[in-house]
Amino acid sequence: MILSEEVQKFDLVILGKGAAAFSAAIKASELSNGEMTIAMVGTGQLGGTCVNVGCVPSKYLLEASHLVFRPGHSRMAGIYDTPVRHNFSEVMKGLRSYVTHARETKYAQVIENYRNVKLFTGLGKFVDKKTVALTGSDGNEIGRLSGSSILIATGSHPSVPNIEGLKDAGFLTSDTIWELNELPDSVAIIGGGAIGLEIGQALLHFGSKVTVIEALDSLLPQSEPEIQAALKKKLEEEGIRFHMRARVSAVHKSGEVKNIEVITHKGKENIGVKELIVATGRAPNTDNIGLEVAGVRTDSRGLIITSDTMKTSASGVYAAGDCVSKKMFLETLAAREGVIAVSNMFGEDMRIDYDSTVWAVFTSPQVAGVGMTENEFSMKNGSCSNRVFSLENLTKASIIGETEGIIKITVNPLDNRIAGMQIMAPNATDIITEGAYAVKNGYTIDDVIATSHIFPSMSEGIKLAAQSFIRDMSKMSCCVE
Amino acid sequence: MGEGRVKLRIYGMTCDDCVATVTRGLMDQDGVLDVRVSLEKRMGEVDIDPEKVKPEELLSNKVFKKPSHYTATLIDQ
Asked: Residue A213: which domain range?
């Protein structure tokens, strides 16, 4: 099908249909009183990774798995372990139904209200700096679009390592696991990052035997060593088996069993499992979109290099989201980058601030962080000051019986301003926002201490963590300020 | 003195008074030599002295900043 022989002209062409694309399109519409003509181009589902195969289904699966697991693992005297009746297939059906609902209500129905935005299905590829050719699933060109400005927001996809026999044996990724209907009784996960640990714990809580194979010597490379160790201990106690500093050399299928050859410092070991999940990171969708024709530079991983204004090396071409070269790949960050890119097209001078961007891992307990780690601050400034506060000293954590967590605060020793905070706690993703305010606005530990916090609450832990810079909190009354 | 021509897409214009307001605002900017604004095309053509003003600086003109409801982007960059 040919859309048009002529090049269709727009004020803005957005390559992508995910979080960055949507936030950009909506911001551009608002800034132009709905007058900016916008083409949104992509091959995937509306909403991109987050709503379809990322944050939304993974959090649904985790929450469902906790509902199954926790009643069977009581933490209070007099409350007896109670097995929960459940049907994994029905849970997955509910998950897929919710994803469809979220996509429809948060993306499809939203964009319908913006008459200035036209959706195109197909792969957009630059033919010059201002023009993209649109190709259909058969590879044939179906039309051309040009834009005064162009935003590249093509996102990313799971990267799959080149392992002998892997493709033949078959595997799941964070793109495909949502189609599961039957719980695999045993699972091996290659990769001990956020995606691997979240999926691993969810399946464990439903009843799978889970083995995680990680190439590095620690989990969650972005987190503090104390959190890495505490989370690993917690997950091991729940039953996850870890192979650290391990490499998968080969995979082969024998009947219904996938045999994984793992090499560690102890030698070679074979693990037989029902299902294999690859969670070794994500790669940008920048290979086949003609970036070289447009003069858009990428780094060695194929990620698009931008300034902090989200401008690429080609004038008039911006980039946002998972296809951009940076350290953190988050839905919220993608949305922010989209807003910044578009605002700058209108002559604003907005810049992305990665230092106060919060990140999270939704395991139980959750992990969340903002700003610099102790090591990062020391490397940059020569020295730093930090404290690690154990949730064992937090009344609310003791009451609910979830004291495995910690709160670590890193401050600039010259002025006590908070440079970074990491939290491992049941609701770390909620209370980390206090850390984000602190890092963004340059609050000191005294500012945190002087701010009232609810007692008893998990957020009070942040105040006590700040107090631990001035006293030993393991030997302190809970009412002292 | 060199001369450059910048094309702007201008949003928020509804009448000839808008055209006059935007034109006057741009003409007041240092380095702007001449301005032609079209309501029908939602466009502006601005002749500039490139040594005094860069094309993207036109977007920061007061007429495109709040509380004004006009905004603009560059067409040819």
From this structure: 166-280
Closest CA to A13 of A152, A119, A123, A147: A147
Q: Is B38 on the interface with A (CB under 8 A)?
A: no
Q: What's the whole-number mean pLDDT along residues A191-207? A: 98
Same domain, A379 and A439: yes
Residue B17: CATH number of its domain: 3.30.70.100
Amino acid letter for position A230: A
Number of domains in chain A: 3
pLDDT of residue A477: 72
CA–chain centroid gap for B63, Å, is 8
User: In Å, how far is A341's CA from the nearest CA of chain B?
Assistant: 12
Number of domains in chain B: 1
Task: Considering only the C-alpha atoms of chain A, give the largest distance between any 2 of them, rounded to a whole number of Å.
Answer: 77
Distance CA A93, CA A178 (A): 9
| Residues 8-27, chain B, touching A (beta carbon < 8 A) | 9, 11-12
Cis amide prior to A456 (ω within 30 degrees): yes
Is the pLDDT score of A203 beyond 70? Answer: yes
- What domain range is B52 assigned to? 4-74
Backbone angles phi, psi at A458, to 5 degrees: -70, -35
Phi, psi at B44, each rounded to 5°: -135, 140
For A314, which residue in chain B has the nearest alpha carbon?
Answer: B77
- A44 with A142, same domain? yes
Neighbour tally for A141: CB within 10 Å = 15
The residues, ordered by sequence, that sit 6+ positions from A326 with a Cβ below 8 Å of its Cβ are A303, A333, A354
R_g of chain B, CA atoms, integer Å: 11
Query: How many residues in chain B?
Result: 77
Measured in degrees and rounded to the nearest 5, phi and psi for residue A85 equal -75, 130
Identity of the amino acid at A61: L
ipTM of the predicted structure? 0.91
Instruction: Determine how β-strand A366-371 pairs with β-strand A359-361.
Output: antiparallel
Range A217-254 burial, b when 16+ CB lie within 10 A, else e:
ebbbebbbebbbebbbebbeebebebbbebebebbeee
Asked whether residue A105 is assigned to any structural domain, the reply reads yes
Range from A257-261, A395-399, A471-475 carrying the lowest mean pLDDT: A471-475
| A1, pLDDT greater than 60 | no
In chain A, whose CA is at the least distance from the CA of B73? A346
Please give the C-alpha separations between residue A261 and each of A213, A247, A257, A297, in angstroms, as whole numbers: 11, 8, 13, 38
**Is the domain of A261 the same as that of A323?**
no
pLDDT reported for residue A10: 97
Closest chain B residue by Cα to residue A35: B11
Write out the two tokens for A137. Answer: 């699933």
Residue where a domain stops, chosen among A295, A311, A345:
A345
Tens-place pLDDT, residues A335-370 = 999 999 999 999 999 999 999 999 999 999 999 999
Nearest to A365 by CA among A440, A456, A431, A280: A431
- Supply the CATH number for residue A237's domain: 3.50.50.60
Contact call for A32 and B56, based on CB within 8 A = no
